[in-house]
Design goal:
- This protein folds into two domains: about 160 residues, Fumarase C, Chain B, domain 1 (Orthogonal Bundle), CATH 1.10.275.10; about 280 residues, Fumarase/aspartase (Central domain) (Fumarase C, Chain A, domain 2), CATH 1.20.200.
- The protein is mostly helical.
- Helices cover about 55% and strands about 5% of the residues.
């Protein structure tokens, strides 16, 4: 960092025209700025770019942005002083969280508007959350004992160029989505038991013949969850059905494809978190300052779209299993809608409707934002990634999928009541106990809203079912 900073200061002293150091930005990059105005240039950049709107990012997302941006500066390609990165880390340690509106980034020259709102607090402006209270950024920094930064040449740009908003929001969404991969297997296994399905389709020989990593892992996990099932043994020899519906039989293939998609997205996001994503990059060893496009969010934007498609597919197959559990036209082994007194009681009828509504929203949000582009900055930034849009969409999709899986688990647990005194597999049995800790058996109609959300919260934060395959 020191070597890169020394090079920037040398360029300033020699008045060499270099983008980002002594020029305007974007379409105004051809305008040369004299040395006496370089500080104003950087502060004006931060202020002018803080045009975000909408709800502010969550504290977790904002903390992730602070950490990721400090990491970019610490790589030594940005030309910022060490004090800038240290200030970001001091804010993180003290929990001074800039109020960052979630909308306003097209993900081209990075997440300019979100990062500008972060940078405003770094210079003692804008708004921040501190100890749970929203206040002026200057006050938050003062209360925390942190001295705001007086930006030098290039440092405003070094704080603004990059993909840290989409990577923070998208990365946390991917993390929560990865938790749900296991929970989808659990929900599917419980539904299979309640529906008297067969695990024959999880035979490892089938999946070795089509060796996708995720498919093999999902089949093994399902087998693990179903081990020791008394329910299965009760109908092994006298079941007239040759094979189950796809939503049961093809769980390894569908859940496995989602696993592979999310793990690909995970690897991409992990690479991004350790990358230099601003512009221009300062190469101290050679003395070069080179303009490029590492700020472009395409790699992140595409995998966030892929992840949203994968998660929507998990919601889709789960909704089909819910229908199978409650629909008297497709399942003769359970009471209509799992109601204690069908007709007088509606049971899980509307819980399934809620799952259908959530799935429909996921389908809309699964449309890839990365295929869209709106030229900005007078045509200079003529192709953009829309990565932040992808991150925000994925966040909602993941929340919806958790709720759909929660509804399936509640319905499947209810279905298991009609299999007593037979016990399901050991993994399913453990999951049933956790579901019942939050939601007792239906003895008549009641509102299920709070139970659905409480279970969804456990699924998404990985506190549900430590039993894993």
């Amino acid at each position: 960092m020191r070597a890169a900073r020394d090079l920037v200061e040398q360029i300033v002293r020699e008045e060499r025209v270099t983008y980002g150091i002594n020029t305007g930005f974007g379409k105004l990059s051809d305008v040369h700025i004299p040395p006496e105005h370089l500080k104003d240039l950087q502060h004006n950049l931060v202020r002018s770019h803080a045009c975000g709107v909408g709800a502010i990012l969550t504290p977790e997302e904002t903390r992730a942005m602070l950490l990721l941006r400090a990491n970019v500066l610490a790589k030594g390609f940005s030309g910022a002083r060490i004090e800038v990165a240290e200030t970001l880390l001091a804010m993180l340690a003290a929990d001074v969280l800039p109020c960052i509106p979630e909308k306003g980034s097209v993900g081209a020259s990075g997440d300019l508007a979100p990062l500008a709102h972060l940078a405003l607090v770094v210079i003692g402006e804008g708004e921040a959350l501190f100890e749970g209270e929203r206040m002026a950024g200057a006050d938050a920094m003062a209360w925390a004992g942190i001295t705001p930064i007086d930006l030098e040449a290039k440092e405003g740009l070094a704080l603004l160029n990059g993909t840290q908003a989409m990577t923070a929001v998208g990365g946390l969404a991917i993390y929560r989505a990865l938790n749900l991969l296991q929970q989808a297997d659990v929900a599917g296994a419980m539904s299979l038991e309640a529906l008297l399905g067969t695990p024959a389709a999880f035979d490892p020989r089938i999946h070795a013949a089509r060796p996708h990593e995720g498919q093999i892992a999902a089949a093994a996990n399902l087998t693990h969850l179903l081990a020791g099932s008394e329910i299965r043994e009760s109908h092994r020899l006298n079941d007239p059905r040759v094979q189950d519906a796809y939503s049961l039989r093809c769980m390894p293939q569908v859940h496995g494809a989602a696993r592979d998609a999310l793990h690909f997205a995970q690897r991409t996001l992990e690479t991004e978190t350790g990358s230099a994503t601003d512009n221009p990059l300062v190469f101290a060893e050679s003395g070069d300052v080179v303009s490029g496009g590492n700020f472009h969010g395409a790699p992140v934007a595409m995998v966030l779209d892929f992840a949203a498609i994968a998660m929507t597919t998990l919601a889709s197959i789960s909704e089909r299993r819910i229908d199978y559990l409650v629909n008297p036209s497709s399942n003769e082994h359970l009471p209509a809608f799992l109601a204690t007194d069908p007709g007088q009681c509606s049971g899980f009828m509307i819980a399934h409707v809620t799952a259908a509504a959530l799935l429909s929203e996921c389908k809309v949000l699964a449309h890839p934002s990365s295929v869209d582009s709106v030229p900005t900055s007078g045509g200079k930034e003529d192709h953009v990634s829309m990565g932040m849009t992808g991150a925000l969409k994925l966040r909602t999709v993941v929340d919806n999928v958790a709720r759909v899986l929660a509804i399936e688990l509640l319905a499947a647990a209810e279905g298991l009541e009609y299999r007593r005194p037979l016990r399901p597999g050991v993994g399913v049995s453990a999951a049933y106990d956790q579901v019942r800790a939050l939601s007792p058996r239906l003895t008549g109609d009641r509102s299920l809203s709070r139970e659905i959300q409480a279970l969804a919260d456990e699924l998404i934060d990985e506190s549900f079912l430590p039993f894993r395959g």
